[in-house]
Amino acid sequence: MKPRPRVLVAGSANLDFVVRAESIPAPGETVLGRDFQTFPGGKGANQAVAAARAGGAETHMLLALGDDAHAQPVEASLRDAGVTLDIRRQHAHASGVAFICLSDGAENAITVAPGANTALVADDLPDLAGVDTLLLQLETPLDAVAAWAARAREAGVRVALNAAPARALPEALLRNVDVLIVNEGELAMIDGQAGDLIGALQRLPVPVAVVTLGAAGCIAREGTQLHLQPAFPVAAVDTTAAGDTFCGVLVAALAQGEALPAAMRAAAAASALACTALGAQSSVPAHADVEALLRGQADAAGLDALAACCGSRAA
After folding, report:
1. Residue (of 313, 247, 231, 232) closest to 280 by Cα position
2. Which of 18, 70, 118, 258 could be joined to 262 by an S-S link, Cβ 3.0–4.6 Å?
3. What is the pLDDT of residue 39?
4. Could you tell me whether strands 217-222 and 225-230 are parallel, antiparallel, or unpaired per DSSP bridges?
C-alpha cells in the first residue's frame, strides 16, 4: 500500500485561559466575566490537530513545552488527536500560555506569553525524510522559521506558512514559501499597502497565496488564476481557532493531492464548524462532520457576495 502523505507542523503550543464576558474590555476598562475554562491551544498545535482530524494525512509536530503542569493537557490533546510529537522539553522556560477574553458576540481578545515556544531554534527541525508538507506559523522565533523553510525547500518539501501573528517578513523567507495563508491584516503587513486586496495577492512573491476574509469566505491566487470560496453560514459561538482550523485542513488536503479549490472548500467548512464550539483544539471538527456539512451545501451559495466583497477591496 502507498504510505499516507505526511504533514509536519513546526510551531507553538500553549494552554489557553478563557474567560467569557458580555464584551471585550476597552483599554483601561474592567469588565466582569463569567465562566472560566482552560483549553489546549497555540497556533501550531491547533493546526496540527486540524490536520490530523482532517483524515488522510499522517501528522507530526515539532514543539517546545516547559517542565510544568501546563504542559500535560497540551501534550495529551495532541496525542489524542493522533499527532506524533517531537517535544523539545525546556527546563528554563514555562510552557506557553494565552489569556483570552471571549465576548457573547463571539469576538475575542488574546494575549500570549510564549514561554518555551521562544526556545525553539533552527537545529530543532527533525529529519524531513518522508515529509510532504511543512506547515509553519510566526509564534516561534522568526530566524528559526526562516531556517526551517530554507531547509525544507532544499529537501524538496512543500512549505506552507501561516504568517500570523501579523508582522513584516524578510524576502528570503517568502522566497522559500510555496503556500502563504494570511488574513487581510496580515496581507497588508506583508505587502506594505492597505485596501488593494487583488493587487496585493498579485504582488506576493509566492506560487500560492490564500487570504481568509472572515464571514465572507476566502480568496486565493494560484499562479495567475484566482479562486473564490464563500464561507459556510453558521451560528458562531467562539472564533478562536477558526483560522488555525482552516490552515490545518487546507494543508492536509493539499498533501493528499487535492486541487486548491477543493482544499479551500474543505478548509472553509471545517473553519465554519470550529466557530460553533468553545475552545481551540476542542472546537476542531472531525472529518465526518466536515463531510456532512459539505454534502449539504451548494457550491455557488454566497459566491456573488464574495466576488463583490473582493472587488470592493480592490477598488
Report:
1. 247
2. 258
3. 92
4. antiparallel
Contact predicate 78/85, CB 8 Å: yes
CA–CA separation, 137 and 43 (whole Å): 7
Per-residue model confidence (pLDDT) at position 315: 47
Q: How far apart are the C-alpha atoms of 25 and 6, rounded to whole Å?
A: 42
Distance CA 99, CA 262 (A): 35
* Phi and psi torsions of 55, nearest 5°: 80, 150
The H-or-E segment that residue 290 falls in is helix 287-295
Residue 105 CB-density burial (10 A; 0-12 exposed, 13-18 middle, 19+ buried): exposed
The arithmetic mean of pLDDT across residues 267-280, rounded, is: 92
Task: Please tell me the predicted confidence (pLDDT) of residue 300.
Answer: 55
By DSSP bridging, strand 96-103 and strand 14-21 are: parallel
Cell numbers placing 174: 517568502
Q: What is the C-alpha separation between 230 and 233, in angstroms, rounded?
A: 9
Per-residue model confidence as pLDDT tens digits over 6-63: 999 999 999 999 999 999 999 999 999 998 999 999 999 999 999 999 999 999 999 9
Residue type, position 10, single letter:
A
Residue whose entry in the numeric block shows the C-alpha cell 504533514? 7
Cβ-Cβ contacts under 8 Å for 230 (sequence gap 6 or more): 216, 217, 268, 301, 302, 303, 305, 306
- pLDDT at position 312 is 56
Cell triple for 91: 527546563
pLDDT digits (tens, 9 = 90+) for 216-242: 999 999 999 999 999 998 988 888 789
Q: Which amino acid is at 181?
A: I
State yes or no: is 127 an active-site residue.
no
Residue 137 Cα distances to 6, 148, 159, 212, angstroms: 18, 11, 11, 15
Closest CA to 134 of 59, 75, 206: 59
State the catalytic residue, choosing from 86, 244, 299, 304: 244
Q: Which residues pair with 227 in a beta bridge?
A: 220
Residue 193 in grid coordinates: 499597502
Instruction: Provide mean pLDDT across the span 153-173.
Output: 95
The whole-model pTM stands at: 0.92
